[in-house]
C-alpha cells in the first residue's frame, strides 16, 4: 500500500532516515519502503545520499521501481542525475532505460556523453532503440522532444470490442488511455476518441463513427511553450504530435506539460531579474557570477557612469543651490523602478502564456495607466507630505525657495515618474517581443536602469524649471 504523498519536510526527512537505517542495518527493508512510498517521494529523499549509497538503494528495488525512481530523480536534481549516469556501467544503465518510458529515457540519456548514450541504446531491443533514436533527433524544447511514443491508437474500422482487446495486451506499454488516436495503417491521423466514447458505445460500432475529427494538434518542431499554451487554452490532457505529412509521431501528456510550464515560468522569472540561468543553485560560484554579470553591467554603466555624467553636466548648479532635492532622489527612483518592474512582469508573463500580443499594446497601456494613475496620486501626495516635513523641520536651507515650491516639485516628479515607468515597463517587453527578442531577457535590469536615469533627469529638469527658471 502506497502512503499519501509527502508534503511536510519533516516527513521527507523521516523517510530519508528510514532509508539510511535500512541501508545500514536492514537492507531487506528497502524493498518494503519502495512499495510503501511513491517513487517521487523516494527520489526526493534520495537526493541527500552519496552516489555509492544511492546505487545500493536502487539495486534493492525491482527493475520497474528503479526506473520510476531514476526518472523522477532526473526531474528533480540534474546534478545528481549526471553523477548517477556517469557512475553506471553501460549494461546497468541499459537495464534501467529498458524499463523507462521512451521520453523519460531520452531525458536521462541527455545528460550522458554521446558515446555512452549510443552504447546504452545498442544494448536495447530493436523497437526500443528505434523509438529512443527517433526522439533524440528532436530539439529537447520542442514538441518532438517532450512527446512520448507510447500511446494507444486504433484503425477507423475497429470497434470498441477490438480496442479493449488491444488495451489488454498493451496496457503496460501505453502512457495514457484517456485519448485513443484514430489513424490509418500508415499512421495518418484522422481523429481521436475519449475513453468514455468507446466504453459507452455499442461493442461493434466503428471507431470512425465515434471519433472527433476537430482535434488540436502540433507539428514536431513546435516550441514546448506554445504546446503548453495550447493545452491550457483548449483544456487538453493529450496533445497529438504529427509531422508535415500529418503522420502521428507521438503524444504530449498533461504531466509532461506541467513540467514544461514550471520550467518556462522559472526561466522567465530568472531572466526577468537578469540571473540568466534556469538552474541557479546547481552550478559553481564562478559560472553563476558570469551568468549574472552581463545584465548587472548594464546597471553599473548606466548608474555608475552615465548617471553621474548627466547629473554633473546638466544639473550641477541646481543641486548646488537646492541641496534638499537630493534627499528625495532615492524614493522617486525606487518607487518608479518598482512600478516599472511590476508592469514588465505582468506584460512578460502575458506574452509568455499567449494571453496578450503586440497588437494589444494600447489596450495594455490603457489598463496599466489606470492603475498607475491611482498609485501615482497616492504616492505623490505622500511624498509631498514627507517633503513638507523635511524642509519645514530645517533639514536643509530653504530660505531662497518656498516650502510649497519644493513639495510641488517633488510631488509632480513622483507622479510623472510612476506614469513614465508604467509606459516603459509595458511597452519595452512588447517591442522586444515584436522584434523577436526574448522580452524577459531584455527587461528587468535594463528597464530598471532606464527608469532610474529617466526619473532623475525628469526630476531635476522640473526642479530647474520651477525653482530656477
Furnish the topology, listing elements before pairings.
Layout: H1 9-24, H2 29-36, H3 39-46, H4 51-59, H5 63-76, H6 78-87, H7 90-98, H8 102-109, H9 114-122, H10 126-136, H11 143-146, E1 153-154, H12 160-170, E2 179-183, E3 189-194, H13 195-200, H14 207-210, E4 218-219, H15 224-233, E5 238-242, E6 248-253, H16 254-272, H17 285-321, H18 329-353, H19 361-392, H20 403-434, H21 439-442, H22 445-468
Parallel strand pairs: 1-2, 4-5
Antiparallel strand pairs: 2-3, 5-6
Helix pairs in contact: 1-3, 3-5, 5-7, 7-9, 8-10, 15-16, 16-18, 17-22, 18-19, 18-20, 18-22, 19-20, 20-22
Describe, in plain words, how this protein is organized in 3D:
By secondary structure, the chain is mostly helical. It folds into 3 domains: 9-137, MgtE N-terminal fold (Alpha Horseshoe), CATH 1.25.60; 153-260, CBS-domain, CATH 3.10.580.10; 285-468, Tetracycline Repressor, domain 2. It has 22 helices and 6 strands. The protein has helices at 9-24, 29-36, 39-46, 51-59, 63-76, 78-87, 90-98, 102-109, 114-122, 126-136, 143-146, 160-170, 195-200, 207-210, 224-233, 254-272, 285-321, 329-353, 361-392, 403-434, 439-442, 445-468, and strands at residues 153-154, 179-183, 189-194, 218-219, 238-242, 248-253. A 3-stranded mixed β-sheet has the order 1-2-3. A 3-stranded mixed β-sheet has the order 4-5-6. Helix 1 crosses helix 3 (39-46) and helix 15 crosses helix 16 (254-272). The longest helix has 37 residues, at 285-321. It is elongated. 35% of the residues are buried. The model has no long low-confidence stretch (mean pLDDT 81).
